Amino acid sequence: MIPAAFDYVRAGSAEEAISLIGEHGEDAKFIAGGHSLLPLMKLRLAQPSVLVDIGRLSDLSYIRDAGDHIAIGAMTRHMDIEKSPVLAEHVPLLAHAAGHVGDPQVRHRGTIGGSIAHSDAASDLPATTLALGATYVAQGPNGTREIAAADFFQGFLTTALAADEMLTEIRVPKMNGAGWSFQKFNRRAQDWAIVGVAAWRRNGESGVGLVNMGSVPILATSVSSALASGASIADAAEQAAAEADPQNDLNASPEYRVHLAKVLVRRALEEASK
Amino acid sequence: MTITESAASTVLGKRRLRKEDPALLTGEAKFTSDLNIPGALHLAVLRSPYAHARILSVDVSAALAVPGVVAAYSGADLAPLWAGPMPCAWPVTDDMKNPTHYPLAVSKAAYVGDGVACVVATSDTAAHDALDAIDVEYEPLPAVIDLEDALSDRVVIHDELGTNRSYTWDLKCEGEDGQVDRAFADAAYTVSEHYVHQRLIPMAMEPRAVAAVPQPFGGDITLYSSTQVPHILKVMTALTLGIPEHQMRVVAPAVGGGFGAKLNVYAEELLCTALARKHKLPVRWTEERTENTQATIHGRAQRQHIELAADADGKLTAVRVRLLADMGAYLQLVTPGIPLLGAFLYGGVYDLPVAYDFSCTSVFTTMTPTDAYRGAGRPEATYAIERAMDALADTMGIDPLELRRRNFIRKDQFPYTAMTGLVYDSGDHDAAATKAAELADYDGLRARQATQNVDGATKRLGVGVCSYFEMCGLAPSRVLASLNYSAGGWEAATVRVLPTNKIQVVTGTAPHGQGHETAWSMIVAEKMGVDPDDVDVLHSDTAIAPLGLDTYGSRSLPVGGVAIAMACDKVIDKAKKIAAHQLEANEDDLEFAGGNFTVKGTPDKAMPLAAIAFEAFTAHNLPDGLEPNLEAQVTYDPPNFSWPFGTHICVVEVDTETGEVDVLKYVAVDDCGNQVNPLIVEGQVHGGVIQGLAQALFEEAVFDEDGNPKTSTLAEYLVPAASDVPPITLGHTITPSPTNPLGVKGIGEAGTIGAAPAVINAIVDALSGLGVTDMPMPASPQTVWTTIQSASTAAQGASK
Ligand SMILES: Cc1cc2nc3c(=O)[nH]c(=O)nc-3n(C[C@H](O)[C@H](O)[C@H](O)COP(=O)(O)OP(=O)(O)OC[C@H]3O[C@@H](n4cnc5c(N)ncnc54)[C@H](O)[C@@H]3O)c2cc1C
């Protein structure tokens, strides 16, 4: 429970953070809210030699109406997302999901950028933003680029971000009145989901994201295509795990996870269709 | 005297906020790790990553080179420091096998977490960094994690024992020879049930912490430890390290929970003390959470086979129990005795003929040692009989509460000599069950269930009942002797009236969250007619309270609290002599009430205790031959156990699609006799119920087949949090104990004892329409779902 020794630098701007990371190379890491990184360091599962603290970059903490989408700064805390009136109006699914992350302490420290960059398949916001068709903005030494959520998650804790790139903004399309549901199935209220489902539905369109159903957050495209081609909710929900590759752990076997995903997707679609 | 008789009770039985809490809530209270000890060295322990491995070599040289490191030792290096092995105080049978066990393993590691080497350094971080530099060569050996496998001796863990079996302990009680077998042969109904108590991690909020502070010039040493048993620890540390007992002082500062896990003598306590003496500097250690899950004892870990025989009306005629208990890798302080504490309770609250056949076999495995965990043996026993009663009711097709009522020991049968020969001093099970049924709306629930649990229903309602008896207040010393326990069961108390009429109480109990300071003050206040805030309770320091047997087994009030009340009586007797002398009255004509002595019939002739206290102090005018000062000491050895009881009812709704269990309602009716402070009683029951519910639904220490612990953080070991706790409705009946003058019984473990069977009975009840007859603990959603799946597969197979 005591991390290995490391150096610490606090960045004053995104540019400085990126150049510090470039300077220190491979073993340097950004630290935002620290709520994913520090637990790993305490167990000595991560031993970065330098931490570049981006926690005080308050200009990266915002939620703005940008016309067809809402722009969220990477340093925005879960609690601010949960409580945001702008999101409540335009992307209620995301605000609601953020309210289910961990416990109040976690929500006050953890950031949406950290959650997505960490890309834990068991986390709520990667799958939720994926279901919503978000775009992520990355800034590197040579400027910024946009990455579609669908292209971002590449493998277990691996993303499209380069080592010297920083996630700066999350752009989430407005939901325009879509029905939605967030189903988080866990044993204790503050836990990660055993299986989670973030779903929205509007006319023929839908998006279904799965939490903890593989090594990456999953977009359940088969469910959406089944719905688009007129399948009933019950039949579409049977496709819930078509893209998934669930793992075994203390809480659930792969079979049980597949079963849960089907039940929860059905319930989510029923709720989203009300 | 009982409190119910004294209608004038002004303090006892009233809700009162705990005087301990302001310091705890503001952070002012000092726990062991908060103590500022200049110059202290820090200990860190290197633990075996293997469940079972021979230690071929230990090389600490690289650790010595880490900056800040003062010394590093292997188990062999420290062997000369031990005057004896780690103590086990409960050799339950004469032929019990007990592997020799030292604070650091020397030739073999027998569980993941077993200490194999250690470092002392000037900082905690340096000590931890240096652990990585120690080079241990292991020869891994096969792990033994299954109890049957352990029993087979396929792999023998302790070579010198030649077997994994520690002991077999039998208790056969028959009115006539062969009565048990005949009862089963003649029974109208029998049930034969197998239950498993998973391993549990006690998980006190405060992990263990130790600081040993030597006086380099005096030879004395003070051991601060987060322990439940400073007195026992003092004796055992002195013996194990060969320290003259009078030079050894143990202090338990604020202690953040124990639940039985701190009723022990641990390697780190001995290591810090031995190394502090060796280095002539303080040595301290604070357990990390992951260490806490591995190197602090575990609880439960038993497999049970219980059989009941009953006549055509469902009246029980015999009980047979076979237990297989997991000792873990070694015997800790009272490890072997835990199953015995349950052995006397497998008959539950029922009127049984003398027809009982109990046998327990205990085995070693390559996992963390087990030992006392809240309830210790009694939750296991209650679970078995209360689950089996539901199975019997199901077999007979009658309501489980009705079956219980047919079998309850009736109120008029007390004092009741049980089949085991123990005497239950008091009880009224029907009253407790009736009250619980009313609070739960039992009949209404059964009606609702009939309409809700129809074919195809995916939200099914279940109601579970558990009626329990608890044997606590451990115990008359002679009974403990008959069980081969190495200590007595008495408790000591001193009550001292200071010159200004403030009162000091010295107790041998060692609170670690129970609120003794409040409760003991209330007892003294009631007795002496002072305000509870004018009473100071001194405890948990062997220099201040030299004699005591500490806090465990719900013993503190029915033994320690009673000792205090008796010491008050002694002080009052002495004060009365002084009052009689000064008032020139006959002692027999004096009455004491509200802190005042008055002469019967002459109310203006009076003398308050405050005046007597000062007279006793100045000693200017005392009766001839009377010693100055007002002080009395009592050591009380209880004549019987304390027998709290009650009925708990749990109501659940099970989602059969996901396996999720929603506890809708939990009713606990507990009878702990007279209550000193109902607020504390409620707190104890709340905590206890949640801990039992945690066993039923959440917690399990999981090991893989190689003996690796898989639940070594709080992310994996699921301790329920506030938001996971159902609404709890409390009720009480009050049946004063005739065993002690306060009429009190223990309440620390009751909730835990009642909860697990009530919850599991409710889940099985909810699913009985689906063919489910049992539910393993913890009833996680996955376990519930798979149990439903296999029951319905079995049902389909049967109907084909
Ligand atoms: C007890 C507990 C319970 C939790 N429960 C949940 C839960 O139920 N659901 C859930 O979704 N999450 C949960 N979390 C995780 C929490 O949401 C984390 O805060 C979040 O996942 C990571 O955000 P952070 O700001 O803390 O990131 P950090 O821990 O600071 O960083 C995480 C990783 O991302 C990198 N990083 C951070 N920010 C950036 C950036 N802007 N650009 C590039 N890389 C970056 C870091 O280098 C690091 O590798 C829980 C955490 C805890 C401690």
Molecular structure report:
The complex is a heterodimer of chains A (274) and B (800). With 274 residues, chain A is of the alpha+beta class. Chain A has three domains: 47 residues, Uridine Diphospho-n-acetylenolpyruvylglucosamine Reductase, domain 2 (2-Layer Sandwich), CATH 3.30.43.10; 112 residues, Uridine Diphospho-n-acetylenolpyruvylglucosamine Reductase, domain 3 (2-Layer Sandwich); 92 residues, Enolase-like, domain 1 (2-Layer Sandwich), CATH 3.30.390.50. Helix content of chain A is 34%, strand content 25%. Chain A has twelve helices and 14 strands. In chain A, the strands form four sheets. In chain A, strands 4-5-10-6-7 form a five-stranded antiparallel sheet. A four-stranded antiparallel sheet of chain A has the order 11-12-13-14, with helices on both faces. Chain A has a three-stranded parallel sheet with strand order 1-3-2, with helices on one face. The mean pLDDT of chain A is 96. Chain B is of the alpha+beta class and 800 residues long. Chain B has 21 helices and 28 strands. Chain B has a seven-stranded mixed sheet with strand order 3-5-1-12-9-10-11, with helices on both faces. In chain B, strands 7-15-14-13-8 form a five-stranded mixed sheet, sandwiched between helices. In chain B, α19 links the parallel β27 and β28. The radius of gyration of chain B is 28 Å and the shape is globular. The termini of chain B are far apart. In chain B, 57% of the residues are buried. At the A-B interface, α12 of A face α4 and α21 of B. The structure holds flavin-adenine dinucleotide (FAD). Flavin-adenine dinucleotide binds next to β2, α2, α7, α8 and β10 of chain A.
